[in-house]
Specification:
Shape: globular
Structural class: mainly beta
Largest sheet: 8 strands, antiparallel
Number of helices: 2
Number of strands: 17
Helix content: under 10%
Order of helices and strands: EEEEEEHEEHEEEEEEEEE
Radius of gyration: 22 Å
Length: 240
């Protein structure tokens, strides 16, 4: 892979660089924007104004302008974009978006004029591209992580444990896991569910509110009770 000192705009899709696709040029990137907030409004007779309830940030589209040059392979170019997963833009080289390519690429325009726009549907939050999972063992007194972002993060925890355990965030118990024998449990705060690594749901073994494991910006301590062999934390920083 070429150095990120590469001068032209670029994107990384699922860790593959656009400049690794023969004949593909990124001619312009979408601006860095904040997603819109979804909300509902309610008007009550006899009361001035309305009541606004926020419902979370909207997903939105980012448009990348591309060009072709030299000995290009149109199928490889289209294949590069026609997917889903993660994307990084060179004007935000340290951030990662989750995306899907939903709209058809204008093949005719791309071949005829060697330029086209590609619309990518991105989720509102972004994570750190170089952020790595943090692993803690039974020898650690606690797991300390920092949400370096500017919005509440919804982490993913992978726990190797045995029997009943408790999880504590910043000194307060948030979850109780009831189980017998050895197990590996994945707690996905973003999707509000627990499962095995193979995807078998384990919600019936959990008591508590997954959302209480959300991490506001700043440093946090996660402690545990019971027999925990290891605790791995991912997605602990998030930006808007």
């Amino acid at each position: 892979m070429k150095s990120f000192g590469y001068q032209r705009p670029w994107v990384l899709i699922n860790d593959m660089p656009s400049y690794g696709v023969d004949g593909l040029i990124i001619t312009s990137l979408p601006p860095i924007t904040k997603p819109k907030m979804r909300y509902s409004s309610e008007e009550i007779d006899g009361r001035d104004g309305d009541i606004i309830t926020t419902l979370g940030y909207q997903s939105y589209d980012k448009t990348v302008s591309i060009g072709l040059h030299g000995d290009f392979d149109i199928d490889k170019v289209v294949e590069f974009f026609a997917t889903s997963g993660t994307i990084t833009f060179s004007n935000e080289p340290d951030k990662v978006y989750r995306f899907q390519q939903l709209e058809n690429i204008d093949f005719e325009r791309l071949v005829r004029y060697r330029t086209a726009n590609v619309s990518l549907h991105v989720q509102p939050f972004k994570t750190g591209r170089l952020q790595r999972p943090k692993v803690f063992s039974s020898a650690d007194a606690q797991a300390v992580v920092t949400n370096a972002g500017n919005v509440v993060a919804a982490p993913k925890l992978t726990i190797k444990a045995s029997g009943n355990i408790g999880l504590y965030l910043d000194g307060s118990q948030v979850l109780q896991v009831a189980n017998t024998g050895d197990y590996t449990l994945v707690i996905d705060v973003a999707n509000l569910e627990a499962s095995t690594p193979e995807g078998v749901l384990m919600n019936r073994h959990i008591t508590g509110d997954y959302q209480q494991l959300a991490l506001s910006p700043g440093k946090h301590s996660i402690k545990w009770s019971g027999s925990v062999e290891s605790l791995t934390i991912e997605d602990y920083s998030r930006w808007i």
